[in-house]
UniProtKB/TrEMBL annotation:
Domain Gfo/Idh/MocA-like oxidoreductase N-terminal residue range list: 57-166
SUPFAM superfamilies per UniProt: Glyceraldehyde-3-phosphate dehydrogenase-like, C-terminal domain, NAD(P)-binding Rossmann-fold domains
Gene Ontology biological process terms in this record: NADPH regeneration
PANTHER family membership: BINDING ROSSMANN FOLD OXIDOREDUCTASE, PUTATIVE (AFU_ORTHOLOGUE AFUA_3G11930)-RELATED, NAD(P)-BINDING ROSSMANN-FOLD SUPERFAMILY PROTEIN-RELATED
UniProt-recorded Gene Ontology molecular function terms: nucleotide binding; oxidoreductase activity
Record's signal peptide: none
Name this polypeptide is given: NAD(P)-binding protein
UniProt GO cellular component terms: cytoplasm
Lineage: Eukaryota, Fungi, Dikarya, Basidiomycota, Agaricomycotina
Species this protein is from: Sparassis crispa
Domain of life: Eukaryota
Length: 420
């Protein structure tokens, strides 16, 4: 039976930079000063798509500062923004499983948006799905391929929407390039470069090199874009990884000894329509790029196929600003636009950071109303958990290749992707 679309209750998991714009050192100085998830959900509540909001971190101590930050920098800047939310845990002591209490308070059909450290995505997403909740999990969805397969199975069993927040799929240039690649014939070569300045090693100190690496953190973006372009046309078969080291582990960063600076994955791809066509992909990511380069994230890729090529440079979009104090900088208004509209309201509804979250909210609401089945989104080219399994396969294979110093094969057996 189909009904009208109801407003969605949403729990935000993680109270960090992406959700709130608030970091250990106060308001973030990056390109996410007031965050993305909280702001987008407050605006979607203003527009009638979202109802009750809650947020869970690992300690209640940070919430008074976060609430003040939202009051001043969101409610105080944009018109008609209700920035209220219920916070978990209530107590100030460290509690890494407070997400269970917050999830237990929700009802089937509500939603959970997860922006927590990479190694916590799997238990939180699984717990939410098993409570019949729709889930949007940030990239990298999980670190291990068996965990990804388990989430695909759980989402199917509980008939809920589970998307990975691969917002670059909604970048107008990337999505246009994806469509154009389809007419260029057999794939031949892909190369991607993404980097952030080495000051990020301070920002990421708590987990860098310990709980995740720069390939999971940054290459996940372009590996997903390439897998998306190749979906149904070719599959990855073999991964060899190489890493540069020595900067992160030296003064002044002194990261843990196993921290890599720059990770490169070399991946073989096999065409599904022609046994003689094979391609090569090189995905590189670094968090030891120079300071003051004018961009927060260098991000460029090159795609070559039988009948043409595509070049994308999303760090320099033909738009730069010079200020006496700081010099030249390239901004990215296609991602999040923070300046208010003529009427004084939030005006970033066309940014791909916003669209990515709105697509998930719309999907969950339409499933709740009985208009669509969650599995239908797999056929829409959206970053569903089922559509993103090869992204995790490549990232996981890369990690194994680095740790065990060997090539890793990706295979499809008994209806499932595995690593060998
Ligand atoms: N910052 C970015 O630009 C960005 C962009 C896209 C995706 N991401 C992804 O989002 C995730 C978080 O990134 P961030 O930059 O917001 O990190 P962050 O370090 O600023 O925040 C992480 C938050 O997660 C919370 N947390 C940790 N363990 C938890 C648990 N067990 N339960 C609930 N909360 C827990 C922490 O308290 C903290 O508030 C990462 O997976 C990252 O890859 C970040």
């Amino acid at each position: 039976m189909t009904t009208e679309m109801k407003k969605l209750n949403v729990l935000m998991c993680g109270a960090g930079e992406y959700t709130t714009g608030w970091t250990e050192k106060g308001a973030s100085k990056s390109d996410k000063k007031i965050g993305v998830v909280g702001l987008t959900l407050f605006d979607l509540r203003r527009l009638g798509k979202v109802d009750q909001l809650s947020m869970v971190g690992v300690s209640g101590a940070k919430f008074p500062a976060i609430k003040k930050h939202f009051e001043e920098n969101i409610a105080g800047v944009y018109k008609d923004m209700d920035v209220s939310f219920e916070s978990f845990p209530k107590a100030d002591n460290y509690n890494p499983v407070a997400y269970k209490e917050a999830i237990d308070k929700l009802s089937p059909g509500d939603a959970v948006i997860i922006f927590t450290p990479d190694n916590t995505h799997y238990p939180i997403a699984l717990y939410a799905i098993e409570h019949d909740l729709h889930v949007l999990v940030t990239k990298p969805a999980v670190q291990l391929l068996p965990h990804h397969n388990a989430l695909v199975a759980a989402a199917k069993k509980h008939n809920v929407v589970c998307f990975v927040e691969h917002h670059k799929r909604f970048d107008p240039v990337y999505s246009d390039a994806k469509a154009r690649a389809a007419s260029l014939g057999e794939f031949n070569f892909f190369s991607a470069w993404m980097s952030q300045p080495k000051s990020q090693l301070d920002t990421f100190r708590a987990w860098a090199g310990k709980d995740s690496d720069i390939s999971y953190y940054l290459s996940s973006h372009h590996i997903d874009i390439h897998c998306w372009i190749m979906q149904g046309r070719a599959v990855p078969t073999r991964v060899v990884a190489s890493a540069a080291t020595g900067i992160a582990t030296s003064e002044p960063y002194n990261c843990v000894p196993q921290t890599e600076d720059t990770i490169t994955l070399l991946v073989d791809w096999q065409s599904l329509s022609s046994s003689k066509h094979r391609g090569t992909a090189v995905y590189s990511a670094s968090w030891t790029a120079p300071l003051k380069s004018g961009v927060h994230s260098a991000q460029q890729w090159y795609y070559m196929a039988e009948k043409g090529e595509i070049n994308v440079d999303q760090a320099h979009r033909g738009y730069d600003i010079v200020q006496d104090e700081t010099g030249k900088a390239w901004y990215n208004p296609f991602y999040m636009k923070y300046s208010p509209s003529e009427s004084g309201h939030f005006d970033g509804q066309r940014g791909y950071g916003y669209i990515s979250i709105e697509k998930f909210i719309d999907a969950a609401r339409s499933v709740n109303a009985g208009h669509v089945q969650p599995s239908e989104f797999d056929g829409h080219g959206l970053p569903t958990i089922a559509n993103t399994v090869l992204t995790t396969a490549i990232l996981n294979a890369g990690r194994i290749s680095l740790d065990e110093k060997r090539p890793v094969n990706i295979k499809h057996t008994n209806g499932e992707w595995i690593l060998e």
